[in-house]
Amino acid sequence: MPQKPQQTDFQLVRVKSTWSRIKKGETLSNNNEDEVTLSEATIGECISEGGISWIIEAPIYFCYKVVETYDILEPSNTTLLWGHITDPQQTEPATASKRKLRRFIVIDEVVDKLYGSKVREYFEQNNVQHKILALPTTEETKSMDLVLNILHEVQSFSLDRRTEPIIAIGGGVCLDIVGLAASLYRRRTPYIRVPTTLLSYVDASVGAKNGVNFLQCKNKLGGYTPPVASFLDRSFLQSIPRRHISNGLGEILKMALMKHKGLFYLLKNHGKYLLDTKFQSCNSFAHHGDAALQTTRIAIETMLEELAPNLWEDDLDRLVDFGHLISPELEMRVLPSLMHGEAVNVDMAFMTYVAHARGLLATEDKEQILQCMRGLELPVWHSGCSWALIQRALRERLKHSGGQLRMPLPTGLGVADIFNDTSEETLERAYKLWVKDCKMGLEEELQAQGDSPAPSLSCVPL
Predict the structure, then answer these.
(1) Contacts for 157 with CB less than 8 Å, ≥ 6 apart
(2) Contact assessment for residue 126 and residue 100, using Cβ atoms and an 8 Å cutoff
(3) Which of 79, 109, 418, 421 is the most exposed place for a label (fewest CB within 10 A)?
(4) What residues act catalytically?
(5) Is residue 221 helix, strand or coil?
(6) Are 376 and 250 spatial neighbours (Cβ–Cβ below 8 Å)?
(7) Is pLDDT above 70 for 236?
(8) How far apart are CA 414 and CA 255, in angstroms?
(9) What is the pTM of this model?
(10) pLDDT tens digits, one per residue of 327-380
(11) CA 113, 115, 119, 125: dihedral to nearest 10 degrees?
(12) Do 187 and 168 form a contact (C-beta atoms < 8 A)?
C-alpha cells in the first residue's frame, strides 16, 4: 500500500552568520545569546515514495520613493545626490563621508541639448565625478542593442552597485531602457528616474516595470525592478511641445475614467488651461486653483494605489490596463504616427463605445468622455485601427492573460470593472458605430475647415 507523503514546514533562522532551518513552531535554543535573525522565508519539505521535493516561499521586499521636487538641477538642491536614501540614519554618514561621490547618468539626447549644460554644472558644482551618456531614446531605438551600449559604458565607469545609483533623465523610453540595463548589471544595480515628459511623470516613473521592444512587439523583453527613487520636477514640462502634453494627458485620463470622477472633471474643465500652461503653476490664474498640481497628484496617487499591491502583476485583473488592450499593436503598427498616449486614447475611445454597446455606460457619459478627449487634443480614431487589427490584438491579449480578455471598461464616470464576457458581435457592433461617429465626425470637421490651417497631427488619421 502506498505511503502517504510526509510534509514538514521549516522556518529559517540565522545565528551569527549561518542560516539554519527549524521546524515551524519549535523554539531555537541559543545558550550563547548570539544575535538571531528570523526570516519570513519558509521551506516546505515533502517526502514521498518518489523522493523529496522542496517548496520555497521567499517574499521579496522593495522600497522606493516617488518625490515631488522643484529646480532639481540647481546645485544647492541635493535631491539628486541624497534624495534616494530612505533610512534617515544612513543620510548623515553618507553626507559626512570623505569618499568622492560618483554618478553615471544616461540622458536622452534631445533633453541633453536642452538641459545638458545644467546637468554638467550641477555635478561639477557638487564635486561629483560623473559620466554622462547621451543617447537617442525613441520607440524606434528602444532595443537590447541600446541596453548593451549602456552596460558597456557602465562597466567602463566601474561603479559601486550598492552606493552609486545610475541616473536616468528623459522620457518614458529612456527610463524603461535604463531600468532594464540597471536590473541586468550585477543582477540588480540601483537606479534613479528623472522624468522630463508628462507621460513619464505620471506613468513610467511611478511603477516597477522596465523593458524594450523586440521583434516589432512593444516591451516584449523586460522585468519588474523599481528604481530606488523617482524625482518629479514639473519645470521640465515647460520645454516640451504641446503635443507631448496632450500625449501625457491620455494616461491621466485613463486613471480618471477608471477610478476618479473628480480627476475627470478637472481634465474636462481645465484641459485647455493645462495644455496652454504646460502644467506650470501660475498664480495669476486664480480661478483655476492649482489645477496642474491637483491633476498630477491625483493621477500619481491613483496609479500607485493600483500598482503597489500588484507590482509583479501576479493578478492579471488590472484597471490600469484600460487603453492597453489594442494600443500596443496599434502603436507599433503605425509607428511613428501615434505617440504612446495617443494610441492609448484611440484604444480608450473604442472601449468607451464597447462599454456603451454593452449597456454599461449611459449615452450622456459616453458623449462627455469623447468631448473631454477632444478637449485634451487627443485622437479618438485612427485609420490604422482596423477591425482586423483589433481582432489580432485581442487574440494576443487572450494568449498572455490566462485565456481571458480581462477587459477593463468604464461603467460610469470614474468607475469601472473588468469583464471577460464581451461577445465578438458586441465588439463588432461597437466598432462600426465608433468608426461611423468618430471617422465621419473628423472628416466633416476637416471639410468645414476648408482652407484654414491643418489640425494637429495627433488628430489626423494617417
Answers:
(1) 102, 104, 131
(2) no
(3) 421
(4) 209
(5) strand
(6) yes
(7) yes
(8) 8
(9) 0.89
(10) 999 999 999 999 999 999 999 999 999 999 999 999 999 999 999 999 999 999
(11) 110
(12) no
